[in-house]
Amino acid sequence: MRGVLRMTLLATAVMGFAGAALAEDWKLEKEDDGVKVFLSPVAGSKYKAYRGVVDIKADVAKINALQEDVAGSCKWIHACAEMRLLKTEGDNSWTYSKIDMPWPVTGRDVVIHVTTEKTADGGLIRHLKAEPTYIPEEKGEIRVPKLIGEWKLVPKGAGVTEVTYQVQTEPGGSIPSWLANSFVVDAPMNTLKGLRSAAEK
């Protein structure tokens, strides 16, 4: 179960990267209640990448435990309808998530390969990459074909951790512009607020 990020989160992220390395022109889009959301255009994609940053009054171990709880993490991940662990091998995990979409937009699902690495400062980085053919597609869902992202947990001392959540994705199918524009802001904003609330209890 280690390293899973079930946070696949978002994978729940259904809106933002096609090649994480291509998103570098970050501009602050919104700041609310201590959470900052930055957006960046992505070459060759009509969807922007997003990056959310927040300081959480909890240590890396506690936040890591919340991310390791696959089913539980769905409660604080934006638009998460379902999440489950498919497989774990050492620091590699595969998760499956269903993403709620407002009617009449078809719901999305995504399989995420999560690779977890420990950093020298006591933090963690979870690398996210969609693997759309890992399991057969499910009826009634559109499989997310591309997603690249990461979670970064950086200890700041005094029991505080800086959490960065970054995603770039191609959601597949057709997404109305109003939904795409709101999702890239709401996903990191609401997910980080939810994670903070759970971690600071």
From TrEMBL:
It comes from the Bacteria. SUPFAM superfamilies: Bet v1-like (SSF55961). Pfam families: START. Residues 24-201 form the START domain. Keywords: Signal. Residues 1-23 form the signal peptide. InterPro entries: START-like_dom_sf, START_dom_prot, START_lipid-bd_dom, START_lipid_transfer. GO terms for cellular component: cytoplasm. One of its GO terms (molecular function) is lipid binding. This is START domain-containing protein. It comes from Pseudomonas nicosulfuronedens.
